[in-house]
Each structure stands twice: as C-alpha cells, then as structure tokens.
Design goal:
Helices cover 31% and strands 33% of the residues. It is α/β, with parallel strands linked by helices. The structure holds 1-O-pyrophosphono-5-O-phosphono-alpha-D-ribofuranose and uracil (URA).
Length: 209
C-alpha cells in the first residue's frame, strides 16, 4: 500500500482556497500553483539523505550537514504540471526536468500519451512527478508506468487536488509510489472532473478555454 500524504499546513490550505475561487485570474492562479508546489516540495524532500561535511566558518571549523550525492529529477505531466515546475525548481535549482505529454480523451476520459523525454541518468535520480490534478488517476498511472521503464532510483507523485477515486486507482496500480496531495476532494462528476475541485487546471494556468 502506498503512503498517501495529505498536506494540511495552513499556508497551503489558504492558498488553495484562493486557487479554487472561480474569480481568481490567470496571473494569480499561476503564482499560487507555483507557491503551493514549492511548499509541498519542501515536505516531499524531507527524507533526502544527508552527509557530514566540514566547513570553516569565520570562527572555527564545524562539521555540518549537506545533501548527499543523490540527485532529483522533476517530471511534470504536460500541460498543467508545467505550472508547478518553477515553484519546485526555486527550492532545488540543480534538479533535472523531464517531460511527459498526456491528455484525457474528452469522451472516454482515458489518458492519451503524446510525448516523453526524460533525463538519461534516471537510475541515479529520485523522481518527483508533478500534476496539479489526480482525477480518475489514469494520467498519473500511465505517466508513472512510463517513468518506471527508465528505472529511476525512486518515484514520488505530487498533486494539488486528488479525488478519492484517483487515490484508490493510483495506490492500487503503484503501491510503491508515495503520493503527496494538498487536498483530497469529495468525488468526480459525470465528466470525471473533481468536485469541488478548481475546474480545468491547464485552462486556468494557461488562460485557454
Ligand atoms: C488534466 C490534469 C491531469 C489529468 C487528470 O490534464 O492535468 O493530467 O487531467 O485526470 P485523470 O486523473 O482523470 O487522468 P488534461 O487531460 O486536462 O490535459 P492538459 O493538462 O493538457 O489540459
Ligand atoms: N483535470 C482537471 O484539470 N480538472 C479536473 O477536475 C479533472 C481533471
């Protein structure tokens, strides 16, 4: 069974309440998605291994902690996942970024993949997959299946809003992948949109409709 972490930090919940508001415009929506992604990344990287290093301060030589060898890769699912990239890179600017292109067929709600470009050294990297929305879970499941073929050291999945249906499907398909969400919403509607949700994340980030 995967570990599912729902963030209840007041800053994240406050920002999410503004994100959900239909009156929030594209500029502020983009800023909030990045800010929430950054705050979530802070938590999702809590278990990065540390090593002791010596540093000479102006006062003396001290043994302090550095993040040890392992490297990160962020993989946004296009399009909406792109909205989270600047936020996470502001915390880990040296991370590499892969891309997976996927959209949901409007009739069947099944994911259709159209692009995949990942760092070549994935076996040495811990991957954090980014997508603001986990609805049926289909896109996330397929994206993680594709990434696993490149044998990363580990994978985590980070979304802003998850539906219970998506969490169930994802944790069944990938019980080894930790799932980080800012909120678990009530349910999906007949068009597989999350309720109460925030609407179409890609359209709200990029101002399309
Ligand atoms: C959205 C979202 C996820 C997917 C979630 O993308 O960003 O990728 O839907 O739905 P699922 O869990 O049912 O698969 P969308 O298909 O709207 O594509 P876009 O990001 O290009 O707008
Ligand atoms: N994709 C979105 O952008 N929003 C939803 O509610 C479901 C899927």
């Amino acid at each position: 069974m995967s570990k599912v972490m729902i963030f209840d930090h007041p800053l994240i919940q406050h920002k999410l309440s503004i994100l959900r508001d239909e009156r929030t415009g594209t500029k502020q929506f983009r800023e909030l998605v990045n800010e929430i992604a950054m705050l979530m990344c802070y938590e999702a990287t809590r278990d990065l291994p540390l090593k002791d290093v010596e540093v000479k301060t102006p006062m003396e030589t001290a043994t302090v902690k550095n993040i040890s060898g392992r490297k990160l890769a962020f993989v946004p699912i296009l399009r909406a996942g792109l909205g989270m990239v600047d936020g996470v890179l502001s915390l880990v600017p040296t991370a590499k970024v892969g891309h997976i292109g996927m959209y949901r067929d409007p009739e069947t709600h099944e994911p259709v993949d159209y692009y995949c470009k990942l760092p070549s050294d994935l076996p040495e990297r811990d991957v954090i997959v980014l997508d603001p929305m986990l609805a049926t879970g289909g896109s996330a499941i397929d994206a993680v299946t594709s990434i696993k073929k490149h044998h990363p050291h580990s994978i985590k999945f980070m979304c802003i809003i998850a539906a219970p249906e998506g969490i169930d499907a994802f944790t069944k398909a990938h019980p080894d992948v930790e799932l980080y969400c800012a909120a678990k919403d009530r349910e999906l509607n007949d068009h597989a949109y999350i309720l109460p949700g925030l609407g179409d994340a890609g359209d709200r980030i990029f101002g399309t409709k």
